[in-house]
């Protein structure tokens, strides 16, 4: 039998969530974000792309504009006031120094206690292969946590006024097959559902038969499943990694 999830630490004040695409956080982690912001914590979102390659029925420029606006609405619904877009190209995000530099700059800019991201492992819990954008962004984020604290890595950031930041304690990885901690989201499912529903253009593109098209059913099942390893309490699970 699987080990119960440990409660995620709550002795922090500021989180920076960095993911590849608009909507990545809304497939579960946003429920936890709603709980955090309601408790007075600050969460900032950084999207590495604008999701412009997500729908082959919409030109990339149009998709970027639509999905940016949907993400801004989704973030506001869970108490997030600041959303940044790094403008890397959706679908072809490359792990490398430019990505590490951009994320390190965001960490120095916002000076978080913790980082939040999406599963960057090769596979999802069910065994499906993960996308290269997710894999590259998550790994770059973990490396950028160290870069952000080292004055001699990307020294141009300090020259631009972004002083090193060594205050990041760990990264919380949503959707990870190696999740070991969880957040009680009692009372915040509706916030998460509303945030996911804000991505209506993408949900409609998926079609009515897609398991994620029904936002409420999808998230209800998720928080119930995680809750089975968290004392029966509705929960969202994360893998915690020290950085």
Whole-number radius of gyration?
17 Å
Examine the coordinates and then state which fold CATH places here, giving the name of the CATH topology: Rossmann fold
Order of helices and strands: EEHEHEHEHHEEHHHE
Secondary structure category: alpha/beta
Low-confidence stretches: none
Mean pLDDT: 96
Tell me roughly what share of residues is in helical segments: 25-40%
Quick one: CATH superfamily?
LmbE-like
Q: Based on DSSP secondary structure assignment, what is the total number of beta strands? A: 8
Distance between the termini: 29 Å
Strand content: 15-25%
How would you write the strand order of the largest sheet?
Answer: 1-7-8-6-5-2-3-4
Count of discrete structural domains: 1
Give me the CATH architecture, please.
Answer: 3-Layer(aba) Sandwich
Alpha plus pi helix count: 8
Pfam family, one: PIG-L
Keywords: Zinc
InterPro entries: GlcNAc_PI_deacetylase-related, LmbE-like_dom_sf
GO molecular function: hydrolase activity, acting on carbon-nitrogen (but not peptide) bonds, in linear amides
Features:
243 residues, alpha/beta, Rossmann fold, 8-stranded mixed β-sheet, 8 helices
Structure notes:
The protein has 8 helices and 8 strands, in the order ββαβαβαβααββαααβ. Strands 1-7-8-6-5-2-3-4 form an 8-stranded mixed sheet, sandwiched between helices. Strand 3 (42-47), helix 2 (60-77) and strand 4 form a beta-alpha-beta unit. With 243 residues, it is α/β, with parallel strands linked by helices. The mean pLDDT is 96. The protein has one domain (16-242): LmbE-like (Rossmann fold), CATH 3.40.50. The chain has helices at 29-38, 60-77, 97-110, 132-149, 155-159, 189-197, 200-206, 215-227; strands at 6-7, 14-19, 42-47, 82-85, 114-118, 170-174, 181-184, 235-242. It is globular and about 50 Å long. 39% of the residues lie in helices and 16% in strands.
